[in-house]
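From the methods appendix. Each design record in this collection lists the tokenized structure first, followed by the designed amino acid sequence. Records were kept in a plain field format so they could be parsed without special tools. The example shown here is representative of the layout used throughout.

RECORD:
FOLD TOKENS (344 positions):
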């Protein structure tokens, strides 16, 4: 096969950042994806519908001409989120749901949740109005090993949360372990997960063997190969519970290549070809369409895309850097080759 097309995919987990960087990040995603869930971990965080509306306008201003792109805004759940804020979001078409960051778990999560149980009335309102809860699923306790943080979060926080609120619509974002796959499969159709390209294509050896590779560092951290294999099987399984979410998360080169480097892989410049590379290596290209273009829209209740994008088998090299208004960034997979290329 030299060329194939699929309905325009959606990215169900994306960081665009703000300010001058939007001129780079918005076109990079809008070129390929029809919709994207926009993460609210700005400084300060996007906690209210009013803030989300302003942020959405700044994003819309950067969409290239003749391009249709719909940003779906996620609000940042805090200890101060109220039932009224859930009801307001439920009635607002521009808001897709609330994002739960355990405080301290990841980039710009300081304002995140410290006491999940104390928000039970908020989760009850989310379940009642079917407002999705998007979750960064890691505990942050200092005595829990970083490689165990997802599993411990699932066992001690998520399962009890869903036992208390069985109707809650929940997406476990950027899953990294077989434990997460088991958890999602054990739940009903209102629980799903997104999977990033880096967690499908890499394991922790790619982060640590032969030297530390800061551009492969993201959270939740890459796990051992047996977990990677479980994620790979989930992605090609044809289960509608697993779908595309890049978690493209740009940081300046100087912030990644540092004594204390930031977490996040800027995958947007190569996102769809990266997923195509993975599905091709698995001899499962026929499963890419459901994963990238159907299952996420079905889960969230959006129409499937009508327009199509085409990929051709022409090897290309991901650039070493991307110039932006805030300095160079090193994209994920920089200097490496990819087999599939998007036809403009
Ligand atoms: N994934 C990451 O490593 N980083 C994300 C935050 C997140 O999604 O956890 C970021 O905003 O940089
Ligand atoms: Zn996260
Ligand atoms: Zn993210």
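DESIGN:
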């Amino acid at each position: 096969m030299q060329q194939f097309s699929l309905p325009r995919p959606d990215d169900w987990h994306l960081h665009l950042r703000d300010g001058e960087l939007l001129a780079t990040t918005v076109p990079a995603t809008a070129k390929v994806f029809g919709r994207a869930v926009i993460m609210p971990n700005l400084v300060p965080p996007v906690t209210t519908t009013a803030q989300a509306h302003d942020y959405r306008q700044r994003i819309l201003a950067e969409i290239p001409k003749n391009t249709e792109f719909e940003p779906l805004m996620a609000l940042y759940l805090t200890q101060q989120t109220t039932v009224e804020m859930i009801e307001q979001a439920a009635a607002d078409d521009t808001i897709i749901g609330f994002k739960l960051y355990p405080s301290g778990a990841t980039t710009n999560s300081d304002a995140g949740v410290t006491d999940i149980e104390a928000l039970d009335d908020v989760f009850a309102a989310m379940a009642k109005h079917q407002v999705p809860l998007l979750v960064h699923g890691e505990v942050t306790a200092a005595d829990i090993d970083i490689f165990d943080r997802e599993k411990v979060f699932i066992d001690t926080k998520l399962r009890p949360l869903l036992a208390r609120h069985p109707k809650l619509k929940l997406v476990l974002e950027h899953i990294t372990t077989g434990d997460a796959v088991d958890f999602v499969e054990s739940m009903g159709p209102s629980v799903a997960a997104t999977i990033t390209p880096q967690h499908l294509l890499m394991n922790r050896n790619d982060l640590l063997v032969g030297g530390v590779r800061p551009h492969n560092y993201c959270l939740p951290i890459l796990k051992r190969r047996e977990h990677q294999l479980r994620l790979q099987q989930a992605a090609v399984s044809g289960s509608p519970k697993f779908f595309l979410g890049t978690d493209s998360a740009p940081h300046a080169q100087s912030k990644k290549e540092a004594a204390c480097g930031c977490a996040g892989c800027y995958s947007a410049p190569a996102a769809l070809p990266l997923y195509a590379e993975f599905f091709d290596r698995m001899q499962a290209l026929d499963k890419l369409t459901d994963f990238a273009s159907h299952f996420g829209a079905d889960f969230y209740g959006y129409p499937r895309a009508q327009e199509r994008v085409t990929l051709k088998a022409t090897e290309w090299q991901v650039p070493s850097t991307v110039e932006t208004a805030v300095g160079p960034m090193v994209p994920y997979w920089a200097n490496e080759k990819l087999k599939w290329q998007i036809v403009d």
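APPENDIX NOTE: The mean pLDDT is 98.
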